[in-house]
């Protein structure tokens, strides 16, 4: 089957970028309508809980466990056997998630107390968080089924439908805010209902896309008698931590932030939203495209292909992750001000979010590399190694975050997440190296430091551009957005020009690489 790794990354990354743009439009409206206070804190806790599971399942546990098993079944026994395997997984997953959702909803007051213990001192904020999360939590069941269909489609090298699905989440949320503004209703509760409606829309979209490719999944009677199904759920537990370590750290951040004054949860939310842009567009895109091809190469014991694709995955991660981290650190204040500072969101909120973003952004290269290195483990159906790393990193993140919230408040929480992301990279890399599974080619060794030089030089140019554009960045909305676009666009052009000059990423080679049917 003809396959282009670069095109797969471009498809997933491009659609994820579109989704994130829609997400920023949603966040701009959120900031204007809810501001940064008790109501926004409660809503973002209610949103974060099902979204935590979305990231763990959609970008972690289920995909990394299901895709290698599905591909192995397809190669060993053919399309019909893989189809039957997917249907069995659907039945068991639906039953398990229905039970989990019911239990969590009954226990929601205690769940919120564990996730946001600081809310207990504010009964109104605590009660609202419980009520909103009861509305949003069924999204977990819906998005997990979406993930199953997405794993099937990705294994068939059809990456577009699953990558496009999150766009529906943002569009439904935006429609909900428009409705709340029009009828003058309770914005937070309308948005909570919109979360669940977006899950329904995504599930219908993915199910139809899979049916068009001959994978219309019927609902079977649940059974774990099939050893492949049991293997799937055995792998999912460790993968939830191994593949979702950043999300585990975000959960720790939420617990710590709830202990701070009102607004801290909201500051971390908006900073993380901006921080998630490069992770989604780069890290998830590379990891999503890498897992099917790497698992097939591992299954075929084609070590040269494994080395090639792992090297290219790391190269893509550095090519885009390094400049993204530098840019968000240097231009954090104008980015936050232009995107969010209006309505109930004031200058003090901008300063708080910008400082938090700078701390998060310093770890972007590490966050992206974690996605690639984790995929190298998961392609071999090995989730135990990453879960050991996950446990250690989560503990260090919690201890460091607790130590830093005293002097640095919410910024200390973000800084702890950044530091432990690099620890995560080091531990995953050392583990692969000791097993002889981290072999990269000379091209990556030669180009990685040159990409670093280009990213630092771009940061210097961005700082100068920010000074020159300061009057426009403080003007009216239309002028501010144009100035920010010029700053970001100019920085991007400068980076790729510098990467070309230094030899980190020759532009002609990239164009040829993107045109090839198989790289």
Q: Can you count the beta strands? A: 0
Largest sheet: none
- Shape label: globular
Overall pLDDT confidence: 82
Low-confidence stretches: none
What proportion strand?
A: under 5%
Give the proportion of residues in helices. Answer: over 70%
3D architecture notes:
There is one protein chain. The protein has helices spanning 5-34, 38-58, 61-77, 79-106, 108-115, 123-136, 139-155, 160-183, 187-212, 227-242, 245-257, 264-299, 303-330, 332-340, 347-361, 364-378, 384-408, 410-434, 442-468, 470-473, 477-502, 507-515. The protein is mainly α and 519 residues long. Helix 3 (61-77) runs parallel beside helix 12 (264-299), helix 10 packs parallel to helix 17 and helix 12 runs parallel beside helix 16. The model has no long low-confidence stretch (mean pLDDT 82).
Write the layout of secondary structure elements.
Layout lengths: L4 H30 L3 H21 L2 H17 L1 H28 L1 H8 L7 H14 L2 H17 L4 H24 L3 H26 L14 H16 L2 H13 L6 H36 L3 H28 L1 H9 L6 H15 L2 H15 L5 H25 L1 H25 L7 H27 L1 H4 L3 H26 L4 H9 L4
Helix pairs in contact: 1-8, 1-12, 2-6, 2-7, 2-9, 2-11, 2-12, 3-4, 3-7, 3-10, 3-12, 4-7, 5-6, 6-9, 7-8, 7-9, 8-9, 10-17, 11-17, 11-18, 12-13, 12-15, 12-16, 13-15, 13-16, 13-19, 14-15, 14-21, 15-18, 16-18, 17-18, 19-21
């Amino acid at each position: 089957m003809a396959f282009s790794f670069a095109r797969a990354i471009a498809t997933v990354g491009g659609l994820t970028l579109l989704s994130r743009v829609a997400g920023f439009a949603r966040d701009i409206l959120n900031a204007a309508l809810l501001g940064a206070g008790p109501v926004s804190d409660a809503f973002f806790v209610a949103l974060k809980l099902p979204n935590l599971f979305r990231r763990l399942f959609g970008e972690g546990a289920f995909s990394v466990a299901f895709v290698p098993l599905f591909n192995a079944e397809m190669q060993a026994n053919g399309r019909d056997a893989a189809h039957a395997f997917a249907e069995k997984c659907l039945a068991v997953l639906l039953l398990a998630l229905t039970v989990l959702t019911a239990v969590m909803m009954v226990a929601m007051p205690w769940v919120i107390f564990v996730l946001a213990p600081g809310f207990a001192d504010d009964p109104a904020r605590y009660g609202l968080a419980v009520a909103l999360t009861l509305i949003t939590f069924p999204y977990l069941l819906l998005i997990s089924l979406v993930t199953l269909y997405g794993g099937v489609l990705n294994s068939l090298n059809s990456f577009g439908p699953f990558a496009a699905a999150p766009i529906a989440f943002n569009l439904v949320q935006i429609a909900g805010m428009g409705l709340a503004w029009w009828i003058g209703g309770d914005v937070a509760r309308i948005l909570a209902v919109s979360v669940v409606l977006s899950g329904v829309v995504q599930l219908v979209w993915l199910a139809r896309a899979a049916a068009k490719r001959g994978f219309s999944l019927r609902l079977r009677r649940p059974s774990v008698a099939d050893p492949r199904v049991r293997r799937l759920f055995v792998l999912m537990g460790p993968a939830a931590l191994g593949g979702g370590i950043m999300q585990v750290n975000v959960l720790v951040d939420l617990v710590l932030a709830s202990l701070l004054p009102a607004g801290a949860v909201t500051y971390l939310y908006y900073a993380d939203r901006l921080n998630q842009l490069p992770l989604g567009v780069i890290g998830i895109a590379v990891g999503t495209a890498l897992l099917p091809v790497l698992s097939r190469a591992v299954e075929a014991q084609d070590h040269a292909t494994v080395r090639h694709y792992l090297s290219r995955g790391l190269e893509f991660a550095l090519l885009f992750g390094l400049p993204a981290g530098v840019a968000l650190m240097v231009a954090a204040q104008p980015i936050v001000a232009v995107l969010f500072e209006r309505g109930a969101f004031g200058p003090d909120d901008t300063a708080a979010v910008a400082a938090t973003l700078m701390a998060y952004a310093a770890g972007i290269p590490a966050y992206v590399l974690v996605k690639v290195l984790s995929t190298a483990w998961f392609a071999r159906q090995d989730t135990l190694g990453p879960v050991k790393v996950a446990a250690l990193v989560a503990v260090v993140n919690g201890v460091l975050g607790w130590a830093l919230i005293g002097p640095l408040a919410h910024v200390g929480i973000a800084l702890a997440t950044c530091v432990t992301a690099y620890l995560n990279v080091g531990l995953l890399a050392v583990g692969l190296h000791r097993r002889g599974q981290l072999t990269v080619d000379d091209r990556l060794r030669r180009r990685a430091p040159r990409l670093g030089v280009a990213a630092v030089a771009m940061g210097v140019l961005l700082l100068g551009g920010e000074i020159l554009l300061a009057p426009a960045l403080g003007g009216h909305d239309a002028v501010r957005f144009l100035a920010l676009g010029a700053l970001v666009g100019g920085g991007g052009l400068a980076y790729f020009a510098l990467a070309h000059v230094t030899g980190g990423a020759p532009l002609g080679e990239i164009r040829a690489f993107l045109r090839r049917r198989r790289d």
